[in-house]
């Protein structure tokens, strides 16, 4: 199953998202994905992915919730994923309402993925504490479980509270949409094993597709799942393939095949660094689906 990150960042952040989504679905894409960036600090205290800087593509970013709503309205079949929403930025009641609405209007196609973020400046702008991000994610997930599966709803946590309230609108997917989680640290991987329905790892093309490294991470997830009394085989995986600038399409197609052969058939390709507009994205989509 092959999906794609939508043209959401940099010069691709334009008004033709609906056309892109409809065309990608017609070409055979299985899923379409958004990311979550709030701003790009001029002087970042932490760079992106271990670097000192942040990619200039992040300086323009379509809102992920609005982007998913546009994609939902323009399509009828593809799964609608996020990789990932930075959960601590959002009050759970607001986040739950937005995600429930997307699942409802899409007919139950939402694949919500969550993470803890990495940019102190974005957290400052969002009014969220940068410390204890993992605990904040856990609280968001606890509150979403209540919002999606009970009525009336009540939550009393360390950071957020929801007074006893009626929340009649529930997701189409029952008992709730599947919870996917990103992250690379041991704590993040163990959280996936304890409470995730799915895992969102990422690889880089060229040079960063290592089934052995994915298998090592997966062992940590599976061990945590067994310790929690869960079935590790029930935790699904979508692998994100980040494509570096200048990468030929054949290298990406080979990465898709390598991952499938290693037991990861469900992937989505992020073309942010190689495509500059919707038509550029669609040329890649068509080529990869035909490969």
TrEMBL record:
SUPFAM superfamilies: Bacterial luciferase-like (SSF51679). Gene3D superfamilies: Luciferase-like domain (3.20.20.30). InterPro entries: Lucif-like_OxRdtase_Rv2161c, Luciferase-like_dom, Luciferase-like_sf, SsuD_RutA_monooxygenase. GO terms for biological process: alkanesulfonate catabolic process. Its EC number is 1.-.-.-. One of its GO terms (molecular function) is alkanesulfonate monooxygenase activity. Keywords: Flavoprotein, FMN, Monooxygenase, Oxidoreductase. It is an enzyme of class 1 (oxidoreductase). Residues 14-260 form the Luciferase-like domain. It comes from the Bacteria. This is TIGR03619 family F420-dependent LLM class oxidoreductase. The lineage of its organism: Bacteria, Bacillati, Actinomycetota, Actinomycetes, Mycobacteriales.
């Amino acid at each position: 199953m092959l999906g794609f990150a939508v043209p959401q960042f940099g010069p691709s952040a334009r008004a033709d998202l609906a056309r892109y989504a409809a065309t990608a679905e017609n070409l055979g894409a299985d899923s379409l994905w958004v990311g979550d960036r709030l701003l790009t600090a001029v002087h970042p205290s932490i760079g992106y992915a271990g670097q000192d800087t942040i990619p200039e593509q992040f300086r323009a970013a379509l809102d992920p919730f609005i982007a998913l709503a546009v994609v939902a309205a323009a399509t009828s079949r593809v799964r609608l994923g996020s990789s990932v929403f930075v959960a601590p930025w959002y009050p759970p009641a607001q986040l739950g309402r937005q995600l429930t609405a997307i699942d409802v209007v899409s007919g139950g196609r939402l694949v919500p993925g969550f993470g803890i973020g990495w940019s102190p400046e974005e957290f400052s702008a969002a009014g969220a504490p940068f410390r204890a991000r993992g605990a904040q994610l856990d609280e968001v997930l606890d509150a979403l479980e209540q919002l999606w599966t009970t009525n009336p709803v009540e939550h009393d946590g360390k950071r957020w509270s929801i007074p006893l309230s009626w929340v009649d609108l529930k997701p189409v997917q029952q008992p709730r949409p599947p919870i996917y989680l990103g992250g690379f640290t041991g704590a993040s991987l163990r959280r996936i094993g304890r409470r995730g329905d799915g895992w969102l790892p990422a690889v880089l093309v060229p040079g960063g597709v290592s089934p052995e490294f994915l298998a090592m991470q997966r062992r940590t997830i599976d061990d945590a799942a067994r310790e929690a009394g869960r079935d590790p085989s029930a935790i699904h995986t979508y692998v994100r393939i980040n494509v570096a600038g200048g990468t030929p399409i054949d290298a990406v197609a080979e990465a898709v095949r390598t991952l499938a052969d290693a037991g990861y058939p469900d992937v989505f390709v992020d073309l942010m660094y190689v495509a500059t507009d919707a038509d550029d994205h669609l040329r890649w989509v068509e080529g990869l689906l035909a490969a």
